[in-house]
Model the fold of this input.
Amino acid sequence: MRRIHLIIAARPNLIKMAPVYHAVSRLDGFEVRLIHTGQHYDTPLSAQIIRELNLPQPDHNFAIGSGTHAQQTAGVMLAYEKLLREERPDLCVVPGDVNSTLACALTAAKQQVPVAHLEAGLRSRDMTMPEEINRILTDRISSILWTPSEDADTNLLNEGVDREKIFRVGNCMIDSLVTMLPTIRTLEPWKQVQCDRKGYSVVTLHRPGNVDSPDRLKAIVHTLITMARRTPLVMPLHPRTQARLEACSLLETLRSTEAIRVIEPLGYLEFIALVEGSQAIITDSGGIQEETSYLNIPCLTLRPNTERPITCTLGTNRLVDLDSLETAHAQAVGSRAVPRKPIPLWDGKAGMRIAKTLTDTFFHHEPTGYAS
Done:
């Protein structure tokens, strides 16, 4: 029996890991265990997403919570090292680029447990982003690199990674989206905020570069208020963003603007339904750039770079700065949607491809530890 640890730490990790869990769980001879580090600690919302994605409760939850990058990383490493002593897996699967991803990858690698990186090879070229550091280091110590797109393959090959470790499998977030889309399309969350379908835009911001600086955050708020004169804005408020807005005495300013609907964070299904019913989305999130590209919804990413450039070249994503945001938004909501060609392998079958790499390639021979 092969034991597989699937590491989850943040809500998007659940969405990425669900297709892997379901595909590998159907294989004979595999025991799949969900390990939640608790890096994101909104228990009710995480529990809701787990139910929506038909996942079991995690087998372990480290409940690490918030803290500095060093505190989170060290806390996860200590907790996971203890677990590895108690139940050694044959493979540790880590997703994306959060602190828990690197922490578990490092801990597993030092215990000679092979590591598989889901969403490998993505690069923003911005080393000021902690996520970029996490991605690069995790890729370097992984035995299996599951990539979502051709540009990710190219990044890894240019960094000298052995081609035999790279498997382009597609995008697991799209797997979850495809699976849940029939249910999503029965929901009408815009009615709860007194908006018409295709009569509003969605705003979701949480990156430190946008919300940690009081001056930057104030400028964003003022720009959003101006934009709301043209189109109502619905803003599910990330806990980090809410804390920063409160600290800067800006939250009431937003809430008192009639055309801006500030709401609590939504579950996965309701949030995607809200996005699909919108004219456009303004974000700094990574996964939303992918989901909107699949849904053909204009996405304005308030960042100078993206680790998902394929969403700009083949999808509906556009990088914008604060000075151009209002104009770009007016163009996005004022133009007719242009059907996009599907992004290769973003077809709802990435989880099955991942399972196939395990049965046909990696576990076809006895693993001997992580590859340097």
